[in-house]
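Can anyone check this?
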Amino acid sequence: MTRPLDGITVVSLEHAIAAPFCTRQLADLGARVIKVERPGAGDFARAYDQRVRGEASHFVWVNRSKESLTLDLKQPGAVAVLKNILASADVLVQNLAPGAAARMGLGYESLKASHPQLIVCDISGYGEDGPYRDKKAYDLLIQSEAGFLSVTGTPDEPSKAGNSVADIAAGMYAYSSILAALLQRGKTGQGSHIDVSMLESLGEWMGYPMYYAFEGAAPPPRTGASHASIYPYGPFAVGDGGAVMLGLQNEREWKAFCDTVLQNPALATDPRFDANAKRNAHREALKALILETFAPLTTAQVLERLEQAQIANARMNTMADLWAHPQLQARNRWRTVGSPAGDIPALLPPGRHSSFDYRMDAVPQVGEHTDAILRTLGRSDADIAQLRATGAV
C-alpha cells in the first residue's frame, strides 16, 4: 500500500521531544527517517526514565519507525558522512542548541547552493533572530514565557501542563510546515527554510486567553479543572468517591440539567442562576447545590442522569483507564511495535484513512542502523572500522 510520504527521506539531528515528535509523524506517513544520535548514549531522552520495561516513556512514544545512525558531529569524518546522506535527502530537521547546526555548516544558507531541493526545518525555543535567540528553552520555561502558567492551575497556585505541551505544539507546527514545504516544492522544484519557535507555537495556542485579555482587560482566572467563564463546566465529586466532568453550554441545557440531573426544576429560574454570567458569578453557591445532589449518588447514576438530559459529560479517567478505554478498543486503535525492550503496544496516529495504513515499525536501539546506512553510501568494511576506531560513529 502506497503511503503519502513513501520515497521521502528525512534526516534529523534531534533530541528530547519537539523534533522527534515531528519526525515520528513524518515516519507514520511513510517517510524514511534517519535519526542522528550521539555514539554511546544516543538521544539523552533515552535516559529520562525506565518506565517501559527499562526504556524511557518519552523516547518510545516519539521514536518508532526510525533508523538510528550514530555520528559524533564534532569530527570531520562524521560530518562528511552526514553530508553524503544529505545529498539525496529531502528534509533536514534539527533542534540542536541555538546556532550549533550553522556552526557545522548545516544551516540552510550553507546547504541551499549544493542542495537546492532540500527543506531545512530548524526548531528552537525562540526562533533564529530577536533578543531571545540564544536563550536556552525547555518545555516548562516556554509554558511560563507564553503565559500558559498564568491561566492554568488554581487561584492560589499556577500549574504546568501534565505533558510537554510546548514541545508538542512546536513539533506539530514543524510537521505541518514540512508537509506544506513538500507541497510547495512539488510546484516550484525548490526547497525552503522553516524556522519554528516553541514560543510562537504555544503562543498560537494561547489565542483565546490573549483576546480575552484584549487591550488590558483582566485575563481568564485560574480555575483548576473548571472553565474560567462558563458554569457549571468542570469536575464534580460524587458520593462513591468518584468524579464526573460535565459541561453546560446554553440555557436549554441548563433547564434540562435542573429538570433531569438535579431534579429541581425551580432552580432553572432562580434569579442567581438564570443566565451563564449569573451562574459564573455565583458559582460557589451553585457548586454547593450540585454537590449536595450528587452526594448520595454513584458515579454511574450521575452519568446516567447526564446522558438522559443530553448533557456533555466525561469520566475523570486515569492513565490506566486510558489504556483500557473501551472506545479505543472498539475502534481498533492499538497496534504492537518492536522496541529494544521487546514488543510494546502503541496507539495509531489520529485520523483514520481509507487509502493507506500508517507505518508502525520498531523503536530503534542506539546506532542500530549505522552500518547498514554507511554501506548504502558505498563505505567499505574497512572504512566503517576506521570510523569506529576514531569514534566518529
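Reply from J.R.: I decoded it. DSSP finds 17 helices and eleven strands in the chain.
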